[in-house]
Amino acid sequence: MNDAAIAISGLVQRRANFELGPIELVIPRGYVTAVVGPNGSGKSSLFRLLLDLAKPDKGRIELLGERVGSGEDTALKARIGYVPEQSIDIEDGLRGSQKADFVRQWYPNWDVNLYQELLRRFEVDPALKLGKMSKGMRRKFDLALAIAHQPELLLLDEPSSGLDPIAWKMMIEVLHRYMDRNGRTIVMASHIIDEVKRLADYIVFVVQGKVLGMYEKDALLDGWQALYVDSGGGAAMDWTRMPGFLSATVSRGTTYKVVTADAPEAERWLAAEEANVRLISKQKLELDEILLFHIEQARGVL
Ligand SMILES: Nc1ncnc2c1ncn2[C@@H]1O[C@H](COP(=O)(O)OP(=O)(O)OP(=O)(O)O)[C@@H](O)[C@H]1O
């Protein structure tokens, strides 16, 4: 079995004021991958290309081993669940139950018990018209619909947008449960740091239409740290020699705050330094601080 859920090569989409790509990216099967980036960086555009809702100018996308955009795709779509960033307005006049009756015809694996259980847990009344549901309720309904056919791949574009804290916790639980079955994959765009930390195994940074890197979450959060180092007041240290060096600023007196993307190696390097340097304390960076570094780096490079 192909162990890539998504394989993207040479993907480019050009618009009047925005260019997405070129993107090379392989997202593994069986894990949760979060796509993180500032507003307007191209996350939703990427999701729409994955689902063949928009056409690329160049490049190739494979989902679950099948090429996207190569013709008949009903069988492939049945293996995928998608929650778009915004619900579709033209469906506002439909009741939830009517939409579910329509949608389930496309999905051989539709599980009516799971659907009903999700609606119960999310406290969504399917008799309501979609346009009459609150924003959060509509979101929960969309999530239930996307999961009820037990897809292998779940694509979620800012899934928690509009959810209250209780519904948010419920969503995290539901997504954890979804992942309990082997071989399932979630790819989600998110601005919610806590959500990414709780759910994601991998993180992809997207800035200005480019993928700046894909990282294993724990390695990323363990690696990116601010080290507070007393330089001993001797000869000036060349901090740029530190493994993973990102920045150095004076914190207080002879103490420097040195940010590194490779804290374990940086600590070994410090211990082996002959100069009179001493590690005083260290602090892991938060995901939003790491994203900010990527954005600043991208500004200089892109
Ligand atoms: N249909 C469209 N036609 C032309 N340009 C578009 C269209 N949709 C989006 N864009 C542009 O593409 C760029 C990326 O938008 P996109 O919605 O993909 O970003 P995003 O990362 O999902 O942002 P957010 O975090 O705000 O949801 C923006 O500059 C946007 O204005």
Keywords:
2 domains; binds adenosine-5'-triphosphate; 302 residues; ATP hydrolysis activity; Rossmann fold; alpha/beta; ATP binding; transport; 6-stranded mixed sheet
Describe the protein:
The protein is α/β, with parallel strands linked by helices and 302 residues long. The protein has two domains: 4-219, P-loop containing nucleotide triphosphate hydrolases (Rossmann fold, 3-Layer(aba) Sandwich), CATH 3.40.50.300; 225-284. It has ten helices and 14 strands. It has helices spanning 43-50, 74-77, 96-104, 112-122, 135-148, 165-179, 193-199, 217-223, 263-272, 287-301, and strands spanning 4-15, 18-28, 32-36, 58-63, 66-67, 80-83, 153-157, 185-189, 202-207, 210-216, 225-230, 245-252, 255-260, 278-284. The strands form three sheets. It has a six-stranded mixed β-sheet, with helices on both faces. Strands 2-1-4-5 form a four-stranded antiparallel β-sheet, covered by helices on one side. Helix 4 (112-122) runs antiparallel to helix 5. The protein starts with a strand and ends with a helix. The model has no long low-confidence stretch (mean pLDDT 93). Residues 15, 17-18, 37, 39-45, 85 line the site of adenosine-5'-triphosphate. Residues 1-233 form the ABC transporter domain. It comes from Paenibacillus montanisoli. GO terms for molecular function: ATP binding; ATP hydrolysis activity.
Topology:
Layout: E1 4-15, E2 18-28, E3 32-36, H1 43-50, E4 58-63, E5 66-67, H2 74-77, E6 80-83, H3 96-104, H4 112-122, H5 135-148, E7 153-157, H6 165-179, E8 185-189, H7 193-199, E9 202-207, E10 210-216, H8 217-223, E11 225-230, E12 245-252, E13 255-260, H9 263-272, E14 278-284, H10 287-301
Parallel strand pairs: 3-8, 3-9, 6-7, 7-8
Antiparallel strand pairs: 1-2, 1-4, 4-5, 9-10, 11-13, 11-14, 12-13
Bound molecules: adenosine-5'-triphosphate (ATP).
